[in-house]
Amino acid sequence: MLSRLVALTRPVAIDGPRAVAVAIYAGDDGAHIRARESGEEGVACLDDAARALVLWCDLWERTHSGVAREWVDGLLAFCRWTQQADGRFLNFVLDWDGALNAEGITSRANGASFWHARGARAMAKVWRVFGDERARADYERARAWFDADPVASDVRAVQILAALDAGADADDVQGWCADVVAQRGGDVLFDSHDATAPHLWGHIQEGVLAMAATALARPDLLEIARRSADAYLVPLIASGFDLPTVQAYGAASAAFAMERLDAACGDGRYGAAARDARAWFDGRNSAGLPIYDRSAGRVADGIDGGRINPHSGAESNILGAQAFIDDVAAWLVQNPGACALPLVGVPARPTR
């Protein structure tokens, strides 16, 4: 998966520390594909760069690899390039010269968006792992927008992860957890205020509430997380994610939630469910085929109607690497040269 990320990553021509970003999409032939799902979006985005930054922080903590630190620095420079003076983030760059997409609906500054939450979490992670005081200030500027508008539960969960990394005030975290709990139907945690059912991709609320329950000494939050997991995620995992469309993001999110529940309550059922969720990548799925091609080091973009999507973009490989983080860390230790950043021959453009 890391070798695929290398193939997807390109330098972004901004001044200061060399910045890198990850191409959003790529075909089965490896050619990069621009995002145009909501008009002209761009070639790379904060959404993916911030998740990759969290991944490389996790890898650095496990390996203290110099290569991992280089990735952290390159991705951090890109994330900072997208953060505006008021603390909000733009999402897309239109080209590899770093031209920011300030107007697109999936890119413009919005404190209630996924990309804003992920940018904030990346800064909080860098602060926690490296003691970077500038990252602390970057996080605080972003955190100021968390309550400016109503926030969907799936986005709020990412904000809580950022706050836990940042050691945020317990009252803030409690309030945000209450917001997550309020967005549910029966026992099942939903993903937005107006939802009538949960969606699998990005659904990490059970895991996040389990983490918050431990941090806040709130067993009631853990009980809510368990009831939702038992009603929704555990049966879905047992079915091999029997849905029309399943992405790596969805299977990895389910594995994340099960791992955190297992850590919080020691119920072996959740540990087993986490293993079954990860097994989706190796063929425990509706296609009956591996999504993770271990020989090529790439994760396909998912399954549609029982068929594997042959594309392999940033999200799938970043989330796949997170799902197998210990295996990926061990591979990095053995193959550091395979992960060198592509930084040659990049002209610089001025930063703001």
How would you describe this structure to a colleague?
This protein is mostly helical and 352 residues long. It has one domain (2-339): Glycosyltransferase (Alpha/alpha barrel). It has helices spanning 2-8, 46-63, 66-82, 114-130, 133-143, 153-166, 170-182, 205-216, 219-238, 248-265, 268-279, 314-323, 325-334; strands spanning 9-12, 19-22, 25-26, 32-33, 44-45, 92-93, 184-185, 188-189, 245-246, 292-293, 298-299, 302-304, 307-309. It has a 3-stranded antiparallel β-sheet. Helix 2 runs parallel beside helix 12 and helix 8 (205-216) packs parallel to helix 10 (248-265). The longest helix has 20 residues, at 219-238. 53% of the residues are buried. Residues 344-352 have low confidence and may be disordered.
Task: Give the tags.
single chain; 352 residues; mainly alpha; Glycosyltransferase; 3-stranded antiparallel β-sheet; two-stranded antiparallel ribbon; 9% strand; globular
Q: Largest sheet, described in full?
A: 3 strands, antiparallel
SS-based class: mainly alpha
- Name the CATH architecture: Alpha/alpha barrel
Distance between the termini: 33 Å
Please tell me the total number of domains.
1
Tell me, what's the shape?
Answer: globular
Could you list the spans in which at least 5 consecutive residues all have pLDDT below 50? 344-352
Spatial arrangement of strands, main beta sheet: 9-12-13
- Spell the H/E element sequence: HEEEEEHHEHHHHEEHHEHHEEEEHH
CATH topology type:
Glycosyltransferase
